[in-house]
Specification:
Number of strands: 9
Shape: globular
Helix content: 40-55%
Order of helices and strands: HHHHHEEEEHEEHEHHHHHEEH
Strand content: 15-25%
Largest sheet: 5 strands, mixed
Number of helices: 13
Structural class: alpha+beta
Distance between the termini: 35 Å
Radius of gyration: 21 Å
Length: about 325
């Protein structure tokens, strides 16, 4: 549990095989095609970089626990000392609420740094003496229910039969190189499990990717006209990832709109006025509720897979679900 809180405190820590706040210049420039051609040494080097802590973000004004009164201030001060949480990581102890555990109340502690936020569930004894960190599991419930119940399985770009037994929800960023690598894995899965799986795409553009938000908004502008057109954008954004820049992204998107036979004037108005930004924001809010903090993140019938993991990991999970009665 201690390690969990330390990880939350260092919210700027890079996640292996996924895009977070910081990434190597080499991986940022990689396209899906280039990624398939890199040597094993390069892959190992990038993975090592992704596993190492990123540079500490610029100092931000910390929340001083003494500004929180009563037990919240006491808890915040204790956590900062006990886990050696640096001053540029903010700690906000939220209201104490009743829990379903006899003798304990529930507290959400929000930990933030560099514009990123995560919450940690904690429990406080009724006598206000003891605090424990972590999630509480009801062993009589489906362990995948909690995450799955937070995801809207409608009104998002989708491929595959609506009644498929397996649904894969992908939270992704069109500029993230690791998402580019995962793209080929998803394409292989769609072929291997044709007719058996459904893919839903959710937007999670990261702030350090300069053209990711524009691509997210543009692809949603395609979606509101035609679901199939979205997947044309999806394919080409990942396939041409290495050649897209902040300067040419709008031209690229407009070219995709023409090729997909959309109403180009309507598309350009949507893109320029950011009419689909609320759809992107909706996806990002949902992702935060699910616990997504890096891209790509996949949720398969409630089972979470983070990063561009080997295809076998996805296939094993899918086969396991398909075998269930």
């Amino acid at each position: 549990m201690k390690n969990r809180l330390i990880i939350l405190a260092a919210v700027f820590l890079a996640v292996s095989a996924g895009c977070t706040k910081k990434e190597s210049a080499a991986s940022k420039a990689a396209s899906p095609q280039a990624a398939q051609q890199v040597t094993q040494n390069t892959i190992q080097s990038e993975n090592k970089q992704a596993q190492e802590p990123a540079n500490q973000p610029p100092a931000i004004q910390p929340v001083k626990e003494e500004h929180q009164t009563g037990i919240q201030g006491k808890i915040g001060s204790y956590l900062r000392k006990a886990f050696n949480i640096p001053s540029n990581v903010n700690i906000l102890v939220k209201d104490i609420e009743p829990s379903n555990i006899q003798g304990f109340d529930k507290i959400d502690v929000e930990i933030s740094a560099g514009g990123r936020n995560q919450s940690q569930e904690m429990y406080l004894s009724k006598d206000k003496k003891y605090l424990f960190v972590g999630r509480v599991f009801n062993i009589n419930e489906n362990p995948f229910k909690a995450a799955w119940s937070k995801i809207n399985l409608h009104d998002s770009p989708a491929q595959g039969p609506a009644n498929a037994k397996v649904t894969i929800v992908e939270y992704s960023d069109f500029e993230c190189p690791f998402c580019g690598r995962a793209y080929s894995t998803v394409e292989d899965l769609l072929k291997k499990f044709h007719g058996k799986i459904r893919i839903l795409y959710k937007q999670f553009p990261l702030p350090m990717h300069p053209w990711a938000m524009t691509a997210a908004i543009g692809s949603e502008c395609a979606y509101v006209q035609n679901n199939n057109a979205f997947w044309y954008f999806y394919n080409h954004l990942f396939q041409e990832q290495g050649s897209i820049t902040p300067d040419n992204v709008k031209a690229k998107l407009t070219g995709y709109a023409k090729a997909a036979k959309l109403n180009v004037g309507k598309f350009q108005t949507c893109l320029n006025k950011q009419e689909t930004k609320p759809l992107v924001d909706r996806d990002m809010k949902e992702a935060a509720n699910v616990g997504v903090n890096s891209t790509p993140t996949f949720v398969i019938n409630g089972r979470i897979i983070q990063g561009a993991q080997p295809e076998t990991q996805f296939a094993n999970t899918i086969n396991e679900i398909l075998a269930e009665k």
